[in-house]
Amino acid sequence: MKMTIVTKNSMRTFSFNCCSVSGLALVIQEMPLYRRQEITHGLLGYLRNADNAINEPACRQQNESDAQWVKANLGPFIQYSAYSDLKDFNISTLTVLDVLSPSQKAELILDPNSGALNDAHVVREVLTSLTETSDYEQLNQFFQVFANINKQRNVTFIQNPDVRDTILNLTLTALAPQLKDFQPEDYQQWFQVYLVPVMASILPSSLRVIPSNITCESYQAIYDGLAQSLAALPLDLSQGVRSSKQYLQDTFPRCSVPASFVCKVTPVHVNLICDGVDGSKLEQILSAGNSSAALCNFTITEHACSSAPYLTSSNLVTLLNCTLKSQNIYPVEVWKLFFQKASAVLDQALETFANMASNNTYPTSSNVLEALGEVRIDNFNQAQLQSEEFITSWFKTKIRPFLAVPSFNFLFCLSSKNFSCQTYQTVIQAFGSQKASMDRDTQQAVFTHFIKPFLSRNDSTDPGCVSSITGSQAWLKANLGDFSDFATVQDLQAFNPNLSTAELLSVFSPSQMAQLVLSLGASNNTDLIDRVFERLQEGNALKNVDGFLTQLTANGQMPIFQPVVRDRVMNTTFIIISPHFSTFTTNDYELWFHVKLIPILASFTPEMLINTTTKISCTNYQVIVSGLALVIQEMPLYRRQEITHGLLGYLRNAENAINEPGRADIGCVMCFPV
Predict the structure, then answer these.
(1) d(CA 149, CA 197)
(2) What is the pLDDT of residues 489-526, one digit of tens each?
């Protein structure tokens, strides 16, 4: 075992032969790392100095393969050699793949002379050799070198798509079992460093390996990695990253929504947008005087990247019209570049387009609006932001056709503008004019990302815009417009501390009335309950009371009412819902008696029980009984006894309920706790 003290100096004087390596290999595990490296250096020195070591590898036996030669002459010490050393000996590194270190495998893939970067089969072999053992540390070592070499060479992405796809897919598959234990810094390392050269191949399906319970810090690390990739990828390679960003936001709303309360500006990298765009054909046709007829034959990207001076107001209107009608989608940065190029004619073109569009809306125009926000609205000066005439011309005319599809970012950035209360109210009116074309999520977003942040600001001369308006209803209409239903009562009271909720009862939604009732706590205010239910009985009373009761338990907690209030709510609710019992299914009974009525069901009377159970099936009767059982502890003793009497009456009066053959199967003999 004394061979473990051999040094590279002693090897120079030692009578060394081709058989000496196998002995050293026996004790390699007992050597410290630096000694293994020294020994490797000595072995390589011997082989280089041997006669014909380069053109005819030293110690080569007749018909000996590269793998056999490496095993005999370097053995396990090969992992401590540089990849370039192996090339010196004309070794085919692919034939010795199984003994290469992770670092050497990374160098092999990135060696221009190996051809691996254009051969997905070779790359698959290399990655498989790293992943088939489930040794995470080997994969980690490989990517440390892989990322460093690419960074040193200023490589932002692997060019060959098949190679890129292979590396990404095999890596994410191998990482999947490890991801549940990843910390935010691990996600940062992989998505912002290691995987950067292959990020162009990522798709939403690639991210399905991400555990659903990751922290928001981990989410942000992944999201930032995707966002950073967009700053380095040409436009034609960025679509997968863009759709993956959206998938991530949709999959983790608990993390993406808070992050949306930041105003972000989209960078425009002309080189990335226009890389690979051939504008010669467009410029050739335009020079021939066929611009108007040919405009729509080219993409917005081609127009944005063209240097030809042809964009008149009329041409811009034509392009907007055909592009939005075709529902082609372009990234915000493309529209930004296009509008910047057309800046001189943009305002007039928008006005003409809006007048031509009439009441049309364009569902794919969210990125158009975002770009206009950054190109134009971001540059409005203080006087313009506070000019009703100016803001009206923009929001009620120029950008009106696009207001039905605002992004979170557009809305939140808008909330930071220094509008006066009057110009802010003009913007609310403009959004309100497009509300019918918005889906409910977008309507909610107008409140959450624009109205609420703006009215919550304390840096204005009139916080909440309360001083110039008399009366709570007028204030609500002016400042929340058609989006007032999305505010909670607590929101409204925070915006306007002098708000009269009593005055607003006539315009409150059912859920807002429930919030108002809950805010009273243990109050005995039955007058308010009467007024609330007068309002609920307007229009579709069943739908209104449904919304009211649903809101009572929306926060997951059971409200506690004074008995007199609970009785009043139960009595009036029963008057509204009982006429509909004849159309109730078993599922309806379960929803009402097991969920919706639970906060007030302890006030259910014997008269209500008789009314409800008349002519209903045993199955539905049993649903009612089990619902009442859920609240029995809240009933006074006399009420439990009355309910029991009513239940027994139903069972006695049910035709043949006791003597009917098979009654045990029907299950109409119930036991109600007393």
Answers:
(1) 11
(2) 999 999 999 999 889 999 999 999 999 998 877 678 89
